Amino acid sequence: MTTVAVRPHTIEKAVEAIDARRDEVVALTRELVGIPTVNPPGEHYQACAELVGERLRRRGFEISYVRAEGSPGDSDRYPRFNVVARHEGAAPGPCVHFNSHIDVVVPGEGWTVDPFAGVVKDGRVYGRGTCDMKGGLAASIIAVEALIDSGIDLPGTLEISGTADEESGGYGGVAYLAERGWFSKPRVDHVIIPEPLNVDRVCIGHRGVWWAEIETKGRIAHGSMPFLGDSAIRHMGALMERLEHELGPKLASRRSEMPVVPDGARTSTLNINSIHGGQPEPKEGLPAPIVADSCRLVVDRRFLIEEPLDQVKGEFVEILEDLARDRPGFRYALRELFAVEPTLADRDGPVAAATARAIQKVLGRPAQFICSPGTYDQKHVDRIGKLKDCIAYGPGVLDLAHQPDEWVGIDDMLDSAKVMTLAAMTLLTGAA
Predict the structure, then answer these.
(1) Nearest 5°: phi and psi at 37?
(2) Cα dihedral value 6, 11, 17, 22, nearest 10
(3) pLDDT at 317
(4) Which domains does the chain have, with CATH numbers?
(5) Mean pLDDT to the nearest integer, 355-379
(6) Could you please report the per-residue DSSP string of 5-60?
(7) What is the mean pLDDT of the segment spanning 60-71?
(8) Could you give the residue numbers annotated as active site?
(9) In Å, how far from its chain's centre is CA 168?
(10) Which DSSP letter does residue 138 get?
């Protein structure tokens, strides 16, 4: 890449100008939170995409709205809208893309404030999605606007996207766009995803995930004569016993070299998402006295970069086949729901290194390189877009995501905006 001369004083002014935008980043975060883009089912995506698009259109960006027609969940009632904003620089050069998802999870119970009011108190903005990740989206917009307003004749291109459905896999968002070239070279060179992973951390990847549904099968009979039937729930209990006492200890003994946080996530994990057995119970009255002929279990297996996906699946199949051989009447069906391999970017790659140097400059301390316990849209940029120079960096504390009284710190948004400004400037100009 050709280095473009940028005076240090000019860089400092661009960064310092972000402090003057404190009220602006708060107002933008509140506006974004005020649109309840709850997923599922995927509400108000178009309104949120248009809020982002219209703001950036006024700043000279070329705006594209992309509906992910035919993607999971897309319908005329709940269309999967995405926005991509593009700003061409003064000369040819690389493209730096900031990608944020606009969907949020359901608020749930336990809030002490209105989850969609964007309440401001004690240096924080509260609301569903403030942390995960509308605060990051607001910070990236402020960062890019400050960079454009700096007056530097920047080469290359700046892009910002607001995408759908990350909370449900990203198939109506980044995956859909990546399949159509929006996250591949030569269009894009570097991607920063402002997920809430703490303001001094550079996230270079994530563990893998395998979701599956396991059904045990039985034979229906009258509940007063269970010996005439075969309970699928009892068969599921036998499976649960094996998972708890056989597979569980194996997973707990494995540890990754990836810097996954928190520390407990450096081991393999298994979560039982849900279990459904027998006949549905009526809201009123008593259930039917029936032996369950079906029981379904949904498992969420998070695995390490050291574990092949075939091994992850094979460990379940081995237990199921053992039970089918040794337990009378045991029958099962296994259905894969979702699978993503672990992702790991190069910590010495351009985007990770530039962001780490920016953290040192802004915060005065070294950046931590980490990996996420769960997946995020880097998986699609990497797997589908074949673009390896992608990291996650943004404001917010990961532990607050999906919690009641979720919040993002205002100072953290400003600091992360400064980091993103410096990182983008380095990637575009080569100036350290």
Answers:
(1) -85, 60
(2) 130
(3) 98
(4) 8-206+343-429 (3.40.630.10), 208-340 (3.30.70.360)
(5) 96
(6) ---HHHHHHHHHTTGGGHHHHHHHHHHHHTS--BTTTT-SHHHHHHHHHHHHHTTT
(7) 98
(8) 103, 166
(9) 9
(10) H
